[in-house]
Design goal:
Elements (H helix, E strand, L loop, with lengths): L1 H14 L1 H33 L14 H9 L35 H17 L4 H20 L1 H29 L2
Length: 180
Amino acid sequence: MTALWVALALVVAGFAGWPVIALVFKLARTIDERADAAKAAEAADRADEDPAADVTVDDFSLSPARDAADSAAGQAVDSELTAPAGPPASDVPAAGPALPTQRILRGGAIIGVLERLGVCLAILTGQPVAIAYIVAIKGLGRFAELKETPVAAERFIIGTLTSMLWAAGTAAAVKVLFLH
Protein backbone atom coordinates (compact mmCIF):
# COMPACT_ATOMS: atom_id res chain seq x y z
CA MET A 1 0.00 0.00 0.00
CA THR A 2 2.91 2.32 0.72
CA ALA A 3 4.20 1.90 -2.83
CA LEU A 4 0.81 2.93 -4.17
CA TRP A 5 0.81 6.16 -2.13
CA VAL A 6 4.38 6.95 -3.18
CA ALA A 7 3.51 6.35 -6.84
CA LEU A 8 0.39 8.50 -6.53
CA ALA A 9 2.39 11.29 -4.85
CA LEU A 10 4.97 11.18 -7.65
CA VAL A 11 2.30 11.36 -10.35
CA VAL A 12 0.49 14.25 -8.67
CA ALA A 13 3.70 16.15 -7.88
CA GLY A 14 5.31 15.55 -11.26
CA PHE A 15 2.45 15.91 -13.69
CA ALA A 16 -0.32 17.82 -11.93
CA GLY A 17 2.09 20.61 -11.03
CA TRP A 18 2.21 22.01 -14.56
CA PRO A 19 -1.25 23.69 -14.46
CA VAL A 20 -0.42 25.19 -11.07
CA ILE A 21 2.80 26.69 -12.40
CA ALA A 22 1.04 27.98 -15.52
CA LEU A 23 -1.51 29.68 -13.27
CA VAL A 24 1.24 31.31 -11.20
CA PHE A 25 2.93 32.56 -14.41
CA LYS A 26 -0.39 34.01 -15.57
CA LEU A 27 -0.84 35.72 -12.20
CA ALA A 28 2.69 37.16 -12.36
CA ARG A 29 2.09 38.45 -15.91
CA THR A 30 -1.18 40.10 -14.79
CA ILE A 31 0.57 41.79 -11.88
CA ASP A 32 3.33 43.06 -14.20
CA GLU A 33 0.80 44.39 -16.72
CA ARG A 34 -1.13 46.22 -14.01
CA ALA A 35 2.06 47.74 -12.64
CA ASP A 36 3.08 48.86 -16.15
CA ALA A 37 -0.37 50.37 -16.75
CA ALA A 38 -0.19 52.23 -13.43
CA LYS A 39 3.25 53.62 -14.32
CA ALA A 40 2.01 54.73 -17.75
CA ALA A 41 -1.03 56.44 -16.20
CA GLU A 42 1.18 58.16 -13.64
CA ALA A 43 3.54 59.37 -16.37
CA ALA A 44 0.59 60.64 -18.41
CA ASP A 45 -0.75 62.50 -15.37
CA ARG A 46 2.65 64.11 -14.79
CA ALA A 47 2.86 65.10 -18.46
CA ASP A 48 -0.60 66.67 -18.30
CA GLU A 49 0.43 68.73 -15.27
CA ASP A 50 3.77 69.84 -16.76
CA PRO A 51 3.42 73.09 -18.73
CA ALA A 52 6.79 72.44 -20.34
CA ALA A 53 5.30 69.36 -21.99
CA ASP A 54 3.28 71.51 -24.43
CA VAL A 55 4.98 71.00 -27.73
CA THR A 56 3.67 71.96 -31.12
CA VAL A 57 4.74 70.21 -34.26
CA ASP A 58 4.37 71.74 -37.69
CA ASP A 59 2.38 69.43 -39.93
CA PHE A 60 3.94 69.62 -43.36
CA SER A 61 1.63 66.96 -44.74
CA LEU A 62 -1.00 69.67 -45.36
CA SER A 63 1.09 71.14 -48.14
CA PRO A 64 0.41 69.23 -51.41
CA ALA A 65 3.27 70.98 -53.18
CA ARG A 66 5.74 69.92 -50.49
CA ASP A 67 4.42 66.31 -50.52
CA ALA A 68 4.88 66.11 -54.28
CA ALA A 69 8.41 67.54 -54.06
CA ASP A 70 9.40 65.18 -51.22
CA SER A 71 7.92 62.15 -52.98
CA ALA A 72 9.72 62.99 -56.18
CA ALA A 73 12.99 63.25 -54.26
CA GLY A 74 12.35 59.90 -52.54
CA GLN A 75 12.02 61.54 -49.13
CA ALA A 76 8.37 60.91 -48.26
CA VAL A 77 7.74 60.69 -44.55
CA ASP A 78 4.43 59.64 -43.01
CA SER A 79 2.77 61.20 -39.96
CA GLU A 80 4.70 58.95 -37.57
CA LEU A 81 8.03 60.25 -38.85
CA THR A 82 9.15 56.98 -40.36
CA ALA A 83 10.77 56.83 -43.74
CA PRO A 84 9.59 54.24 -46.25
CA ALA A 85 11.67 51.10 -46.53
CA GLY A 86 14.16 51.26 -49.33
CA PRO A 87 17.35 49.59 -50.42
CA PRO A 88 20.14 49.62 -47.83
CA ALA A 89 22.87 52.22 -48.08
CA SER A 90 25.83 51.14 -50.20
CA ASP A 91 28.26 51.23 -47.26
CA VAL A 92 26.07 48.96 -45.11
CA PRO A 93 26.24 45.26 -45.99
CA ALA A 94 22.93 43.69 -46.91
CA ALA A 95 21.41 41.51 -44.25
CA GLY A 96 21.63 37.81 -44.85
CA PRO A 97 18.75 35.40 -44.48
CA ALA A 98 16.72 35.91 -41.34
CA LEU A 99 17.99 33.85 -38.45
CA PRO A 100 15.42 31.72 -36.64
CA THR A 101 14.35 33.18 -33.34
CA GLN A 102 15.82 31.38 -30.35
CA ARG A 103 13.33 30.10 -27.83
CA ILE A 104 14.25 31.03 -24.29
CA LEU A 105 14.78 28.17 -21.83
CA ARG A 106 13.89 25.27 -24.10
CA GLY A 107 13.07 22.03 -22.34
CA GLY A 108 11.67 23.77 -19.28
CA ALA A 109 8.57 21.57 -19.08
CA ILE A 110 10.59 18.35 -19.05
CA ILE A 111 13.09 19.76 -16.58
CA GLY A 112 10.19 20.92 -14.38
CA VAL A 113 8.62 17.47 -14.29
CA LEU A 114 11.96 15.88 -13.41
CA GLU A 115 12.58 18.54 -10.76
CA ARG A 116 9.19 17.95 -9.13
CA LEU A 117 9.69 14.17 -9.20
CA GLY A 118 13.12 14.58 -7.60
CA VAL A 119 11.90 16.94 -4.87
CA CYS A 120 8.91 14.73 -4.06
CA LEU A 121 11.05 11.60 -3.95
CA ALA A 122 13.67 13.33 -1.78
CA ILE A 123 11.05 14.30 0.79
CA LEU A 124 9.29 10.92 0.75
CA THR A 125 12.59 9.09 1.29
CA GLY A 126 13.69 11.47 4.05
CA GLN A 127 16.61 12.94 2.07
CA PRO A 128 15.91 16.69 1.89
CA VAL A 129 19.59 17.39 1.12
CA ALA A 130 18.94 16.00 -2.35
CA ILE A 131 16.80 19.08 -3.04
CA ALA A 132 19.96 21.22 -2.82
CA TYR A 133 21.57 19.07 -5.51
CA ILE A 134 18.51 19.45 -7.73
CA VAL A 135 18.55 23.25 -7.37
CA ALA A 136 22.31 23.39 -7.98
CA ILE A 137 22.16 21.25 -11.11
CA LYS A 138 19.23 23.21 -12.49
CA GLY A 139 20.85 26.59 -11.78
CA LEU A 140 24.23 25.65 -13.20
CA GLY A 141 22.63 24.18 -16.30
CA ARG A 142 20.78 27.42 -17.02
CA PHE A 143 23.39 29.90 -15.79
CA ALA A 144 24.50 31.20 -19.20
CA GLU A 145 20.94 31.80 -20.42
CA LEU A 146 19.88 33.38 -17.15
CA LYS A 147 22.85 35.74 -17.14
CA GLU A 148 21.98 37.07 -20.61
CA THR A 149 18.25 37.69 -20.17
CA PRO A 150 16.78 39.13 -16.97
CA VAL A 151 13.24 38.21 -18.05
CA ALA A 152 14.25 34.57 -18.35
CA ALA A 153 15.93 34.73 -14.94
CA GLU A 154 12.77 36.08 -13.33
CA ARG A 155 10.66 33.41 -15.02
CA PHE A 156 13.18 30.75 -13.94
CA ILE A 157 12.96 31.81 -10.30
CA ILE A 158 9.16 31.99 -10.28
CA GLY A 159 8.86 28.61 -12.00
CA THR A 160 11.44 26.90 -9.81
CA LEU A 161 9.97 28.13 -6.54
CA THR A 162 6.42 27.28 -7.58
CA SER A 163 7.48 23.86 -8.82
CA MET A 164 9.37 23.04 -5.65
CA LEU A 165 6.60 24.26 -3.37
CA TRP A 166 4.06 22.15 -5.27
CA ALA A 167 6.24 19.04 -5.08
CA ALA A 168 7.15 19.58 -1.43
CA GLY A 169 3.53 20.24 -0.47
CA THR A 170 2.34 17.13 -2.29
CA ALA A 171 5.03 14.97 -0.71
CA ALA A 172 4.43 16.38 2.77
CA ALA A 173 0.67 15.87 2.50
CA VAL A 174 1.06 12.25 1.36
CA LYS A 175 3.69 11.56 4.01
CA VAL A 176 1.60 13.04 6.83
CA LEU A 177 -1.78 11.69 5.75
CA PHE A 178 -0.90 8.26 4.37
CA LEU A 179 2.65 7.22 5.26
CA HIS A 180 2.65 7.74 9.04
